[in-house]
């Protein structure tokens, strides 16, 4: 019931713009369906980040339903009807693949808080297209590096049988260097008992798995239930152990190693401010890296809006975003030649807090200032 | 008959004016909205031919929509990269080539699915068509070369000689021309000798067999024609959105097409277009006001189906009857 | 003269039940051959095998000299087999004229044409109109089939079957459910059609059978127990015992 | 060998889950002639109610009861408010109406529970593993799920074959008119069957909740496999649902487990993996297509 009320008030808050004078920013994101919580994180992270930046803004949020058609429709209205010059928010690559070209052709700027499909990172890069999150490959390279650093030489790597899953395993293998058994899972699979049996049969030194969202929750639960948690160590990339997943699996995640570009215990001012602001605004909802990426996106956009004085001069705004002069929650942040981030990657451990629930603790920096493999193909 | 044609002409003129009206009122996204609705209307109308006129309830029609779309996407991909499909077929961005290719490939796929499915009927037919669509869905998700589940970008709309396809209004009119042509084709089709046989099969397959009609062949032919129509719609959609992805053939998309047909009016010519327009407008409009748009959409659909028979077309007929 | 329909040793079993047990019979050109028998004797199963809806386990069916035992229903129609159904089977959403027109169109061919106008095929509609004009349904051409009386439906079915110009027509209980007047009309119509094609008449109405049939075969428990002219059948003691006796009771 | 045995158990467990869902669906289908796309939503209702109560009370068993009660009650409400009006309609209207129900259920769940998946955990006594054969520790909870599934199958067998209600249900699945002619309160029978189906779907949801992610839309994913089971088994046949459920569960699990590795022996590595998984995903649909080609009405079609 309480949830019902908060949602209702949220709706009202959305309908009544809080900063009617500010620059209008279009947020197209996924709020319906099982992945709806990702869009929720992005929307709320953006709001807090922009507020922290001190820029005058107004968010125009709309659900894409994870459907490219809807996304394009929304984008068209925002760009051509409402005269919005700055878009952001998309969670999934399939939506951004349809929407980003639409925005770029209209002369607008798109800043991605999450999705970063590889074609747009390489040959099809564009001056008005920025990614604040990360490119898929570098994400999983970090896990490979972590597994290597921990001294493992044999691994079983599991991911769903779609492009991002294959990229994940490729990325892991690239940095790991050891012997890897690849297992692909079904795209909508939710029971991994068969895979657990195979892992036990292979008896590797380490397991790497990439299953975001609900699949990740099911996988971790079943890993524990199969008695593998204490037996075979696991390394994960950040989408497979975000705070929402950890909350849903509870103790079943304790003991797992993660790799990430940001963690809640980071010791910098921006991160601390964000964690505090989030806790105040959304006490019931854990802050995930999606929220953090969106917060950084908010800070970046905000800093550029302040510098360029709004979106009246798109070229100036583009230059201000490209300069990336903001204090990122991840400490250091810079754009590479393809306007994707060049950043550090960290190894984290999932430990138990006093109540036995999982808590992510940052251990060490494993990769420094890395961009992505597609940057070389980008000629801007 | 004359009056029908007048109404049709009037509707066409109104639709042709949409880009101007959109510009004039500042609601420029209408062009895209109506364009997408028209394309969905074509896909739904193609489904309606087998579903409404032929009595074959296919729950996998989005597969042909998606396949048609992917033909455009894949040909463009090879055109862009300067490579050839399977090393033989060169890519192209010419609409005069891509659309017929899409129609052809979708027709072939429909021939395959139809030949295997049409032996069954009722619920079994519903499920087996769904099953084939799922297979295509999983196939395209695992096609790495063509973007897998992320889909495939078509950076530029296919070229049509003499037209500036970058211009939104031009593209819209091209779509409208296709939609109108397809509508006229369907009108012709349901009134043709073949259309009559198909209508007969829907009402009484046994009787038609006793008249010497090998019903399976006719149903297969209808299924293929319908699949080709969906392929054409899919190819236009990819040109319109400049993007193809496996979403196009997800089973919920098949469900959506069915919803459009039923909402508009099963077995009517204009119904699917009206249903597509209504559903699409409803979704987009509601999504502007609430993130929870699915709830009102669901309730509305439920109310429509529980309180009316024959969808919006029946409602229109009722209103017209009342006005007389 | 060879028979237009020649059935030899037809066997069909369902599980343990033998529905037709080595049934043989012939229908000669121009003949009306009646098939009678109590309920459950296997008459419908036999009809459905002749039509091709059921494939027999053994035996042959020859139609106009061709072996059609494994031919699908539509193929048999093309060779000149027509039928009516026990429970009338028509296109309910269409009018009487449209039903008849479609039957004629089906015979005429060109059914894969997708760009013509079915309503403008004059040869089809002229024939339909002339057939209707000479029938008991002349005043009902524009009525939807769903709104017809039972007897009218039976009449329409016969017209549609005849419009196929079959060599042999299977009539599955054409009198079923008809009143006395309607039955007389039907008998008249069948008599009038006698010259057009041979008929295999499955019927319970003995009055009609004796009025129409040149020959009668009696089917009981899947077997033909007697065959002959009306007089022979009337006189046959086995038939009287197995069948007519029951009917009288 | 141990691996094979373990995979067989996994297949069996997936199979009974499918059976729990399919049993209700096939009866609703067979007796009332209603295609209920929203059956998966009741699975979701069971899982959410059970998880939520388990979180509040800390008791899995409390959650179990809550899940059953909630799904059964909501089944009753849905039958009375919507499904009842669909009996006389054609399949198309049913598909549209129950499609609408899915939208309504999913979004209402978001409104009540939010978008984030719920936390669930195993009941204390089933949190460990047992070594069934040496070298194979198997989670006791999964054995419990198998046992519950088999028990329900047994119970349904008795209900359908040994009771008066069961007789009516069987009659209804074969010949709807006949039951009406018997002068039975057919509406009451329909409602009872629907509620029972909802209850079983809810039970499947409760059983799955500690294993999978309890999230909005979880029912949409499994409903397709359930329909495949119903169609392969033959509409209206609980026996068919049981056989097809188990066979499909085993088949699906075996394909996933062994096909990629088998392909790898004849093809180069990663492609074989991807192809193997691709084929496995299509496996149940392929099987349905094959079964229907041979038996167009499924294995144990109740209606002739």
Main pleated sheet of chain A: 8 strands, mixed
As for the number of domains of chain A, it is 2
Chain-averaged pLDDT of chain B: 90
Element order of chain B: H for helix, E for strand: HHHHEEHHEHHHHEHHHH
Transmembrane segments (chain B): 37-55, 62-79, 99-118, 125-143, 170-186, 220-245, 257-282, 294-317
Membrane topology (chain B): Multi-pass membrane protein
Pfam families (chain B): BPD_transp_2
InterPro entries (chain B): ABC_transp_permease (IPR001851), LivM-like (IPR043428)
Keyword list:
heterotetramer, A: 380 residues, alpha/beta, Rossmann fold, 2 domains, 5-stranded parallel β-sheet, 13 helices, 43% helix, disordered N terminus, B: 324 residues, mainly alpha, two-stranded antiparallel sheet, 14 helices, 74% helix, 2% strand
Topology:
The complex is a heterotetramer of chains A (380), B (324), C (249) and D (304).
Chain A: H1 2-15, E1 23-29, H2 36-53, E2 57-63, H3 68-81, E3 86-88, H4 93-105, E4 109-112, H5 118-121, E5 129-131, H6 136-149, E6 154-160, H7 163-176, E7 179-185, H8 193-202, E8 206-209, H9 213-225, E9 234-237, H10 243-249, E10 257-260, H11 269-281, H12 289-308, H13 314-323, E11 334-335, E12 341-352, E13 358-370
Parallel strand pairs in A: 1-2, 1-3, 3-4, 4-5, 6-7, 6-8, 8-9, 9-10
Antiparallel strand pairs in A: 10-12, 11-12, 12-13
Helix pairs in contact in A: 2-12, 3-4, 6-7, 9-10, 12-13
Chain B: H1 2-16, H2 18-25, H3 29-53, H4 62-81, E1 84-85, E2 89-90, H5 95-117, H6 122-141, E3 152-153, H7 168-191, H8 193-203, H9 205-210, H10 215-241, E4 243-244, H11 251-264, H12 271-289, H13 294-307, H14 311-323
Antiparallel strand pairs in B: 1-2, 3-4
Helix pairs in contact in B: 3-7, 3-10, 3-11, 3-12, 4-5, 4-6, 4-10, 5-10, 7-8, 8-10, 11-12, 11-14
Chain C: E1 5-14, E2 17-27, E3 32-36, H1 43-51, E4 58-63, E5 66-67, H2 73-78, E6 81-84, H3 96-108, H4 122-133, H5 150-163, E7 168-172, H6 180-193, E8 198-202, H7 206-212, E9 215-220, E10 223-228, H8 230-235, H9 237-248
Parallel strand pairs in C: 3-8, 3-9, 6-7, 7-8
Antiparallel strand pairs in C: 1-2, 1-4, 4-5, 9-10
Helix pairs in contact in C: 3-4, 3-5, 5-6
């Amino acid at each position: 019931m309480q949830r019902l009320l908060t949602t209702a008030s949220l709706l009202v808050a959305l309908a009544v713009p809080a900063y009617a004078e500010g620059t209008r920013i279009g947020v197209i994101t996924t709020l319906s369906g099982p992945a709806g919580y990702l869009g929720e994180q992005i929307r709320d992270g953006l709001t807090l980040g922009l507020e922290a930046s001190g820029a005058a803004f107004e968010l125009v949020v709309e659900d894409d339903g994870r459907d490219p058609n809807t996304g394009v429709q929304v984008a068209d209205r925002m760009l051509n009807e409402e005269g919005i010059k700055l878009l952001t928010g998309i969670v999934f690559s399939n939506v951004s693949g349809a929407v980003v070209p639409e925005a770029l052709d209209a002369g607008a700027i798109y800043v991605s808080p999450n999705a970063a499909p590889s074609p747009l990172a390489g040959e099809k890069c564009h001056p008005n297209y920025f990614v604040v999150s990360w490119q898929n490959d570098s994400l999983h390279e970090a896990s490979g590096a972590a597994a290597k650093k921990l001294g493992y030489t044999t691994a079983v790597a599991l991911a769903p049988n779609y492009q991002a899953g294959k990229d994940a395993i490729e990325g892991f293998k690239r940095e790991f260097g050891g012997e890897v058994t690849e297992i692909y899972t079904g795209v909508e699979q939710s029971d991994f008992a068969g895979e657990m049996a195979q892992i036990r049969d292979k008896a590797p030194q380490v397991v790497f798995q990439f299953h975001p969202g609900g699949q990740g929750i099911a996988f971790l639960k079943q890993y524990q239930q199969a008695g593998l948690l204490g037996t075979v160590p696991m390394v994960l990339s950040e989408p497979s152990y975000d705070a929402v997943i950890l909350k849903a699996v509870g103790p079943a995640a304790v003991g797992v190693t993660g790799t990430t570009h940001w963690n809640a215990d980071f010791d910098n001012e921006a991160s601390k401010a964000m964690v505090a602001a989030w806790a105040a605004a959304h006490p019931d909802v854990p802050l995930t890296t999606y929220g953090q990426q969106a917060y950084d996106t908010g800070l970046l956009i905000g800093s550029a809006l302040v510098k360029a004085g709004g979106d009246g001069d798109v070229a100036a705004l583009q230059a201000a975003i490209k300069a990336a002069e903001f204090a990122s929650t991840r400490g250091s942040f810079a754009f590479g030649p393809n306007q994707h981030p060049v950043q550090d990657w960290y190894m984290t451990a999932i430990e138990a807090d006093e109540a036995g629930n999982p808590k992510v603790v940052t251990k060490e920096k494993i990769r420094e200032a890395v961009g992505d493999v597609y940057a070389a193909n980008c000629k801007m | 008959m004359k009056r029908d044609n007048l109404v049709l002409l009037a509707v066409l003129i109104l639709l042709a004016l949409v880009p101007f009206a959109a510009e004039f009122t500042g609601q420029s996204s209408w062009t895209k909205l109506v364009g997408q609705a028209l394309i969905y209307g074509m896909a739904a109308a193609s489904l309606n031919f087998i579903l409404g006129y032929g009595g074959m309830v296919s729950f996998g029609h989005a597969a042909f929509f998606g396949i048609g779309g992917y033909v455009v996407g894949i040909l463009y991909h090879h055109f862009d990269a300067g490579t050839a499909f399977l090393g033989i077929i060169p890519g192209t961005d010419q609409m005069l080539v891509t659309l017929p290719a899409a129609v052809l490939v979708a027709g072939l796929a429909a021939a395959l699915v139809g030949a295997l499915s049409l032996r069954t009927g009722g619920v079994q037919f519903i499920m087996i068509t769904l099953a084939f669509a799922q297979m295509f869905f999983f196939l395209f998700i695992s096609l790495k070369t063509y973007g897998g589940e992320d889909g495939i970008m078509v950076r530029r709309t296919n070229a049509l000689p003499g037209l500036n396809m970058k211009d939104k209004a031009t593209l819209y009119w091209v779509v409208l021309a296709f939609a109108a042509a397809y509508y006229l084709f369907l009108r012709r089709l349901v009134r043709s000798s073949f259309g009559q046989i198909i209508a007969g099969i829907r009402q009484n397959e046994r009787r038609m067999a006793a008249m010497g009609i090998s019903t399976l062949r006719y149903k297969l032919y209808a299924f293929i024609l319908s699949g080709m129509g969906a392929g054409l719609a899919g190819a236009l959609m990819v040109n319109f959105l400049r993007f193809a992805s496996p979403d196009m053939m997800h089973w919920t998309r098949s469900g959506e097409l069915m919803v459009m047909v039923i909402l508009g009016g099963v077995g009517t010519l204009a119904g699917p277009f009206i249903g597509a327009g209504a559903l699409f407008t409803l979704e987009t409009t509601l999504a502007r006001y609430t993130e929870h748009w699915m709830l009102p959409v669901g309730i509305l659909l439920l109310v429509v189906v529980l309180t009316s028979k024959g969808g919006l077309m029946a409602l229109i007929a009722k209103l017209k009857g009342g006005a007389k | 003269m060879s028979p237009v329909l020649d059935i030899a040793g037809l066997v069909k079993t369902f599980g343990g039940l033998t529905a037709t047990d080595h049934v043989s019979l012939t229908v000669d050109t121009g003949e009306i051959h009646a098939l009678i028998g109590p309920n459950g004797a296997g008459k419908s199963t036999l009809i459905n095998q002749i039509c091709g809806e059921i494939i027999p386990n053994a035996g042959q069916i020859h139609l106009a000299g061709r072996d059609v035992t494994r031919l699908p229903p539509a193929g048999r129609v093309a060779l000149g087999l027509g039928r009516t159904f026990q429970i009338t089977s028509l296109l309910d959403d269409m009018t009487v004229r449209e039903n008849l027109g479609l039957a004629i169109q089906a015979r005429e061919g060109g059914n894969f044409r997708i760009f013509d106008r079915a309503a403008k095929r004059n040869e089809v509609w002229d024939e339909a109109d002339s057939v209707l004009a000479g029938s008991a349904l002349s005043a009902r051409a524009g009525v939807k089939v769903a709104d017809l009386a039972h007897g009218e439906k039976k009449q329409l079915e016969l017209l549609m079957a005849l419009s196929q110009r079959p060599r042999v027509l299977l009539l599955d209980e054409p009198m079923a459910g008809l009143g006395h007047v309607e039955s007389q009309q039907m008998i008249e119509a069948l008599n009038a059609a006698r010259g057009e094609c041979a008929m295999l008449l499955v019927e319970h109405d003995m009055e009609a059978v004796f009025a129409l049939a040149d020959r009668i075969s009696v089917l009981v428990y899947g077997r033909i127990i007697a065959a002959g002219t009306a007089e022979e059948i009337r006189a046959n003691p086995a038939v009287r015992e197995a069948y007519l006796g029951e009917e009288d009771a | 060998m141990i691996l094979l045995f373990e995979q067989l158990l996994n297949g069996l467990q997936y199979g009974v889950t499918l059976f729990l869902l399919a049993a209700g669906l096939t009866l609703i289908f067979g007796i009332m002639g209603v295609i209920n796309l929203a059956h998966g939503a009741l699975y979701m209702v069971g899982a959410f109610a059970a998880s939520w109560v388990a979180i509040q009370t800390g008791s899995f068993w409390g959650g179990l009861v809550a899940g059953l009660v909630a799904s059964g009650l909501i089944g009753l409400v849905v039958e009375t408010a919507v499904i009842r009006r669909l009996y006389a309609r054609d399949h198309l209207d049913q598909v549209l109406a129950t499609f609408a129900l899915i939208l309504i259920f999913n979004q209402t769940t978001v409104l009540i529970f939010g978008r984030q998946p719920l936390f669930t955990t195993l009941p204390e006594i089933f949190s460990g593993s047992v070594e069934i054969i040496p070298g194979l520790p198997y989670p006791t909870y999964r054995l419990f799920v198998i046992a519950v599934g088999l028990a329900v199958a047994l119970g349904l067998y008795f209900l359908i074959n040994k009771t008066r209600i069961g007789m009516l249900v069987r009659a209804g699945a074969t010949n709807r008119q006949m039951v009406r002619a018997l002068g039975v309160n057919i509406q009451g029978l329909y409602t009872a069957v629907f509620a029972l189906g909802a209850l079983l779907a809810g039970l499947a949801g409760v059983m799955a909740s500690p294993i999978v992610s309890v999230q909005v839309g979880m029912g949409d994913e499994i409903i397709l496999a359930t329909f495949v089971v119903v169609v392969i088994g033959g509409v209206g046949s609980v026996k068919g649902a049981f056989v097809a459920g188990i066979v499909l569960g085993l088949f699906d699990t075996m394909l996933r487990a062994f096909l990629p590795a088998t392909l790898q022996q004849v093809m180069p590595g990663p492609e074989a993996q991807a192809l193997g998984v691709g084929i496995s995903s299509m496996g149940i649909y392929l099987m349905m297509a094959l079964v229907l080609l041979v038996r167009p009405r499924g294995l144990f079609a109740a209606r002739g």
